[in-house]
Amino acid sequence: MTMAETTMTAAKSDVNTETPILSVKDLVVRYTTGSKSYLDAVRGVSFDLYPGQSLALVGESGCGKTTLGLGLLRLLPRLGSVPSGSMTFVGKNNKPVDVLKLGTAALRRWRWEEAAIVFQGAMNSFNPVLRIGEQMADTMKAHLIDGHKPSKDEILDKSAEMLRAVRLEPKQVLPSYPHELSGGMRQRVLIAMSLLLDPRLLILDEPTTALDILTQRAIVDVLGELRERLGFTMIFITHDLALAAELADRVATMYAGRIIETGSVRDTFQNPRHPYTAGLINAVPPVTGDLPNLASIPGSPPSLATLPKGCAFRDRCSYAEDKCAEIDPELEMIESRLAGLSHTAACINWQQVHSPREVVTADA
Ligand SMILES: Nc1ncnc2c1ncn2[C@@H]1O[C@H](COP(=O)(O)OP(=O)(O)OP(=O)(O)O)[C@@H](O)[C@H]1O
Ligand SMILES: [Mg+2]
């Protein structure tokens, strides 16, 4: 399937265009690195996400994708903090909440019931000495379902239902310990667990990275089915552009802690307007065609602790000019579209950026 066909499939999803489910404004996430030093791994990120939408966050290792995902769920490590910005979330009761102002108890409920995450390197998310059934039950016991504590039978029924939804056999999986399952099965269990309390928002951080290609395929299919059936909103973190094209309606490219381009899958991958996104697309090996067309992006990302003035990409950019050392451009509107699908790019030379070849999805 080419990316254009994939985009048409994605466009079928039922996106409510009225109120964003999540509205992020100027979010900064900081890690303290010493008594007087820190680095901002997310440097002022803003976006609106609409119900039913699937947003892929793409970009090189270290650009801040996981930090943004953890920041959105307020799950940062001890030395991480959010010094500024806002996150407004519209929950199941249709009332907006300011996620940064939720107290400990409310936050604990909000996670799982409204928003859940499948972590990068998810194998570490399991308790190795508890059976899968016990781990699923523990997750549910801490929450109310339809206003009451779930009974043992309800917990078992829901766990089995979600395992079947990810194509696993509950009788086999519930009594197993994590080490008795394959990597692909464990990843599917984690997806099932994340959906136990019917969250409106699911964040998946590199859910297929450590898996072989056939297992990847199975996970991608399961996620597509689950989205269609349950209608949750999704943020999908990956550096695999073909997966992003397949699973997302929308793409946001991150570089050095900022979103530097965003738009629909079609606009972004067919007509990228930031030289970095264009570079990422050109670096994907074509399924057909000549390998010599491949071009890597020269150099490596700058250190977030010592970012120079101006555009953080300029040292690697073939479009860079003197002005780029002075200006760190904001996202500029390129094509206005509904439901947060507008195409924007943070480059003063966006008009000159060439369209690279088309990204071909994994199952082409
Ligand atoms: N606990 C921490 N303390 C200090 N710096 C951190 C911490 N965690 C991450 N960082 C730094 O924050 C930046 C962003 O890291 P992050 O893990 O969010 O990137 P990523 O885009 O998810 O990368 P990858 O694709 O490798 O998963 C990196 O420079 C990283 O070194
Ligand atoms: Mg990461």
Automatic annotation (TrEMBL):
Protein family (similarity comment): Belongs to the ABC transporter superfamily.
Start and end residues of each ABC transporter domain: 22-281
Cell compartments where the protein resides: Cell membrane
Species for this entry: Microlunatus endophyticus
Keyword Lipid biosynthesis: no
Gene Ontology BP term (one): peptide transport
Keywords assigned: ATP-binding, Cell inner membrane, Cell membrane, Membrane, Nucleotide-binding, Translocase, Transport
Protein name: Dipeptide/oligopeptide/nickel ABC transporter ATP-binding protein
An example Gene Ontology molecular-function term: ATP hydrolysis activity
NCBIfam families recorded: oligo_HPY
